[in-house]
Amino acid sequence: MVMEKPSPLLVGREFVRQYYTLLNKAPDFLHRFYGRNSSYVHGGLDPNGKVAEAVYGQAEIHKKVMSLQFSECHTKIRHVDAHATLSDGVVVQVLGELSNNGQPMRKFMQTFVLAPEELSLNYNSYKNLECLSFSDLIVNC
């Protein structure tokens, strides 16, 4: 019997559930979602006010996540949208609020591009691309 491929929205919602649960409870394992060809960008600006650079590969992503010192992290997911992409991938857009280290909640937007290998709905999957921006850092032109 051939199993029907899950819808992009189902994949996206399950991925978001697993990803943010791990972020809240065990951020030191968050790098397991990424592979050696993955990229990760956190925030719009670095501490010096320059545009944040992407890091590549599971090891560098792990270093970056550890440098963010996630502790007492809490997220409120407000909206998840997901659509099919080329080559059977899924792009996931997340809107929500994030608090780290007891700081006030900050609104964020996060985009994930999931590669086909990830569609198993398994927390050990990895993604190819991620970009997170806080809405208080977005400048309107």
UniProtKB/TrEMBL annotation:
Gene Ontology CC terms, in alphabetical order: cytoplasmic stress granule; cytosol; ribonucleoprotein complex
Span of domain NTF2: 11-126
Superkingdom of origin: Eukaryota
One annotated GO molecular function: mRNA binding
Principal subcellular localization: cytoplasm
One Gene Ontology biological process: innate immune response
Record key words, sorted: Cytoplasm, Immunity, Innate immunity, Isopeptide bond, Methylation, Phosphoprotein, RNA-binding, Transport, Ubl conjugation
Location(s) in or outside the cell: Cytoplasm, Stress granule
Protein name from the UniProt record: NTF2 domain-containing protein
